Amino acid sequence: MGQIRQMLDRQQGRVSFHMPGHKGGYPFGGAFDVTELPGTDDLHEPAGPYLHLQQKAAHLCGAACSFLLVGGSTLGVEAMLLSVLKPGEAVILPRNAHVSAWSACVLGGFRPLSVYPRYEADGPEGYAEEDFMRALEEHPEARALLVTRPDMYGRCLPLDRIARRCREKKVRLLVDEAHGAHLPFLKGMDGAPASAGALGADMWCQSLHKTLPALTQTALLHLRDEALFPRAKAALRLLETSSPSSLLLLSAESALEEMEARGAERLALLRARIDAFAEALDLRFARCIFPGMDPLRLTIDVRNAGLSGYEASARLAEKGVDMEMADEKRIVGIPSIENGEEDFRRLAEALESLPGGSAPKETERIQAYGEPCMDLREAFFSEKKWVPLKGAAGQICGAAFGLYPPGTPLAAPGERITKELAARMQRAMEQGCGAFGTNGKGEVSCVIPR
User: Fold this and answer.
1) What does the radius of gyration of the chain's CA atoms come to, in whole angstroms?
2) Under a CB-based contact definition with an 8 Å cutoff, are residues 285 and 306 in contact?
3) pLDDT band at 365 (very low <50, low <70, confident <90, very high)
4) Can you tell me the distance from the alpha carbon of 389 to that of 444, in angstroms, rounded to the nearest whole number?
């Protein structure tokens, strides 16, 4: 039994005149939902079980030190940028960076330098190593570079050369590895990518809840160099709740203990199930394999069902099978060690129930993003108005908006909304993709001109 569980067990049977108000009676784990008491640890100043678990996480994930997070990798990304940059300094951001990276630029007054994606043959938007190497040469003023790895499709960018170049230029390499908490436990698995820390990242964050059996919001922030510890700790104190949930921390402990004890074995079994599923896949569908692919990601081309990915995902949901993401051609699933054979059987049956047909007509591939024209922070704090998306072309974005998932902004504050961007956003929403940054009426926040 883990130390956090023992600590929480000792709190049972006590009379509480302390927060939280449910006094342990809440039906969903309330008995373990306690805040800081004389007999418990304090996440912001850990000295007991929380400290022990952070040390274990660092050991398992190859870090000099690690922090437990109860705000997901959103918190981790924001803390990384606030740990290595000062107001006015620049960070190289790929356009597939999560909205939290742009939020950190608002909070810290940092200057984002965008790197735009490329199209590879029949694949989705993506990046190559050369894109970031070139950005480092073109922007000598940058003090940090953020990479998202794996991306939503499971692609893992090689980092070795990027990390070396960053060290040469004294640029901090930060990696949003929210979808890669399982990567440290794939050691020895044929063809599996390594975690960012093993490839030279200075800081990287991982969402335990995305690919491991942990509750939502649990995550880790890792540091390669202990010298970054004071600023990272200060950033987390600034951003994170002062009343972290012990229930979430118990969940993090349980997940890491399971991975330490049986992770490699269970991940190998999961890969075997995924590979067997892919081999038996209905001939109308094809599993997508990209360079540097996470072998545990399941990306499936569904066009030969005569449907877009959005439509196929909606029909699977009607059959009781929920996918993580869809685009115009593909559906994406994130299997974990908790997905058994029955889950894959139901997914196969749901796919087989889709109609046959020819692939939907290819729509024009538009790489549409906002065009920087105003300081990001100034735009965020300006007076704003809601504007219908169809009439937003030419307006300046006042608050980030985009498609969800994946939660990456198509327009960030201070960027001019183009006609192509508005059309791209509108088309995806009409096809069933979710969105963030709108008001539910198809309107987006725009700066009111002075």
Assistant:
1) 22
2) no
3) low
4) 6
Which of 14-18, 36-40, 209-213, 371-375 bottoms out in mean pLDDT, i.e. has the lowest? 14-18
CB-based contact 288:332 (threshold 8 Å): no
- 386, β-bridge pairs: 445
Query: Which segments within 36-162 are labelled E, that is strand?
Result: 65-69, 90-94, 111-115, 142-148
Contacts of 326 (CB under 8 A, 6+ apart): 308, 309, 310, 312, 313, 332, 432, 433
Which residue(s) pair with 438 in the sheet? 444
Region 94-115 average pLDDT: 97
Question: What pLDDT is recorded for position 14?
Answer: 80
Confidence of residue 364 (pLDDT cuts 50, 70, 90): low
Who contacts 361 (Cβ-Cβ below 8 Å, separation ≥6)?
Answer: none
Rounded Cα distance, 436 and 429, in Å: 11
Whether 371 and 416 have beta carbons less than 8 Å apart is answered as yes
Strand partners, 447: 384
Greatest pairwise CA separation for the chain in angstroms: 66
* Contact of 104 with 144, CB cutoff 8 Å: no
**pLDDT (0 to 100) of residue 366:** 67
Res. 25: pLDDT tops 80: no
Average pLDDT over residues 272-280: 97
Q: How far apart are CA 300 and CA 254, in angstroms?
A: 31
Class of domain 264-352 as given by CATH? alpha beta
Looking at the domain covering 3-259, what would its CATH class be? alpha beta
| Domain residue ranges of the chain, discontinuous segments joined by + | 3-259, 264-352, 371-447
Question: CB under 8 Å, gap of 24 or more: what pairs does 320-327 form?
Answer: 320/346, 320/350, 321/346, 321/347, 321/350, 324/152, 324/405, 325/152, 325/405, 325/406, 326/432, 326/433, 327/124, 327/433
Q: What average pLDDT does the segment 104-120 reach?
A: 94
CATH code for the structural domain at 371-447: 3.90.105.10
Tell me the pLDDT of the chain averaged across its residues: 94
Q: Indicate the residue type of 419.
A: K
pLDDT band at 123 (very low <50, low <70, confident <90, very high): confident
SS3 333: strand
- pLDDT band per the 50, 70, 90 thresholds, residue 444: very high
Contact 391, 355 (CB under 8 A): no
Please enumerate in sequence order all residues whose Cβ is within 8 A of that of 121, keeping only pairs 6 or more positions apart, or say none.
Answer: none
